[in-house]
């Protein structure tokens, strides 16, 4: 019953996961900016990958609604906090040293914060689902998956702009901005455990860069 949700989540647009720049036309200032952002980004991308993996593990048809609810709720909380920290990372790095860099940065931060809020809202909706009625619960998950698809496909224009041109090329060369593999089978952080940015940088575990 969780398969559609897992598919929607794995298809989500996340900062710098779509980067595929190559070449060496970016200058030192742009490279320095990219490094500043990407060094902070990696732990958050890792959290998102781990949360996605946790949801994937609860896709069996015989998964109990209560278990699915608990896993999805924790995963959405984790993703929400990660997006908030991504926004803080882009914000604290300052505008990229390119034309219209300040506007691009502000719009990207705005979108990341909006995504954080959207995932927090999904967590609230998951928590409100009736686990006592499997059919109703499955319908509720379908609705959440539909919302997740909207989050994934709408409102990422500023992120795409941030990932284009010299800035995108510079970011794509940074290991921290490359897609991580889920490290373990995370039970995802306990809901409302640590709060926001402070906890987000607490896990500097290096992870392997992978395809995509």
Helix/strand-derived category reads mainly alpha
Mean pLDDT equals: 76
How many beta strands in the DSSP annotation?
Answer: 0
Gyration radius, rounded:
17 Å
Number of helical elements: 8
Give the terminus-to-terminus CA distance. 27 Å
Share of residues in strands: under 5%
Looking at this protein, list some descriptive labels.
mainly alpha, 8 helices, elongated, disordered C terminus
Q: Would you kindly provide a written description of the structure presented here, covering whatever features stand out?
A:
There is one protein chain. This protein has 212 residues and is mainly alpha-helical. Helix 1 packs parallel to helix 5. The protein is elongated, with a radius of gyration of 17 Å. The two termini are 27 Å apart.
Topology of helices and strands:
Elements: H1 3-10, H2 28-57, H3 65-92, H4 101-127, H5 134-153, H6 157-162, H7 165-172, H8 196-200
Helix pairs in contact: 1-2, 1-5, 2-3, 2-7, 3-4, 4-5
Short structural summary:
The chain is an all-alpha fold and 212 residues long. The protein is built from 8 helices and no strands.
């Amino acid at each position: 019953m969780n398969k559609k949700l897992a598919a929607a989540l794995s298809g989500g647009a996340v900062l710098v996961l779509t980067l595929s720049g190559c070449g060496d036309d970016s200058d030192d200032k742009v490279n320095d900016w990219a490094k500043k952002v990407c060094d902070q980004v990696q732990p958050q991308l890792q959290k998102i990958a781990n949360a996605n993996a946790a949801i994937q593990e609860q896709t069996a048809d015989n998964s109990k609604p209560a278990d699915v609810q608990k896993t999805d709720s924790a995963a959405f909380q984790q993703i929400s906090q990660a997006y908030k920290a991504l926004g803080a990372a882009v914000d604290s790095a300052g505008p990229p040293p390119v034309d219209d860099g300040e506007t691009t940065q502000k719009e990207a931060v705005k979108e990341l914060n909006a995504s954080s809020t959207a995932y927090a809202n999904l967590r609230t909706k998951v928590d409100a689902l009736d686990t006592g009625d499997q059919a109703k619960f499955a319908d509720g998950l379908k609705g959440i998956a539909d919302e997740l698809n909207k989050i994934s496909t709408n409102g990422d224009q500023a992120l795409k702009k941030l990932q284009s041109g010299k800035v995108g090329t510079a970011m794509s060369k940074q290991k921290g901005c490359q897609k991580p593999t889920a490290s373990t089978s995370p039970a995802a952080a306990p809901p409302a455990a640590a709060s926001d940015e402070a906890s987000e940088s607490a896990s500097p575990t290096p992870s392997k860069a992978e395809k995509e």
